[in-house]
Amino acid sequence: MPRKTAMVTGASSGIGAIYADRLAGRGFDLLTVARDRGRLEEQAARLAASHGVQVSPLPADLSGREGLEPVLAKLREDAGITMLVNCAGSGPKGPVLQSDATGLAAMVHLNVDVLHALTVEAAKAFAARGEGAIINIASVVALMPERFNATYVASKAFVLAFTQAMAEELKGQGTQIQAVLPGFTRTEIFERAGIDINVIPADMIMGAEEMVDAALAGFDRGELITIPSLADDGLWQALETARHVLGPHLSLKHAAPRYGIPAEAV
């Protein structure tokens, strides 16, 4: 039987690199996507030697259509791909009001538009084949928007909501989907953003290896949403229950009485 292939974006460093290593350890062949060809080729040789799998680097700058299109084509055309892990993304360098508009737009494009395009392409291909899995890296800031750069928060809230909605569409299609919500994770993203990681309390920062191992354990458990730091899963379930309780009250014929608008005026 041929081995299954996982595509990992942002695979040359940080969370993506750990996913590549762990999936290779599970016997997946890999398609690794990132901008840095040298790092990808070095990683490919190392993973192939240590895990005995085939690793195919796919250098691509996903921020541009010319880089994204070949990756989308791979998802469409390569029937051996059964997993997509969306790790590519970027973080902010400060609050929105102190940020360059071009940089914010680039962050939205990578965190939202690119992830959206890849997920949709993979979902269509996997559903048609009746087999597949998609893992999207979001962030806990999606659940506490007051605490971080507003544009980044919104981009990760998109990933969370998009994954939840896609899970409904993929039911019965043989495709599993998961959103992972890490907290602070020790990766190169802090250095690239010019943030001194030492200003963050050490007990709030998880190692990337531990984060990915927990996320994959959640995947194995069939979790739609995995929050690696959350010890009491009942807290998440309570939030979900409250959200569903709101549902029947969110779209009605008349405005709520507290707004003092006569029904006949509507």
TrEMBL record:
Tagged with keyword Glycoprotein: no
Ranges in coiled-coil conformation: none
Keywords (A to Z) from UniProt: Oxidoreductase
Signal peptide positions (record): none
Oxidoreductase as UniProt keyword: yes
InterPro entries found in the cross-reference section: NAD(P)-bd_dom_sf, Sc_DH/Rdtase_CS, SDR_fam
Gene3D superfamilies according to UniProt: NAD(P)-binding Rossmann-like Domain
Domain of life of the source: Bacteria
PANTHER family attached to this UniProt entry: ALCOHOL DEHYDROGENASE
Family: Belongs to the short-chain dehydrogenases/reductases (SDR) family.
Descriptive protein name: SDR family oxidoreductase
Organism: Shinella lacus
Organism lineage: Bacteria, Pseudomonadati, Pseudomonadota, Alphaproteobacteria, Hyphomicrobiales
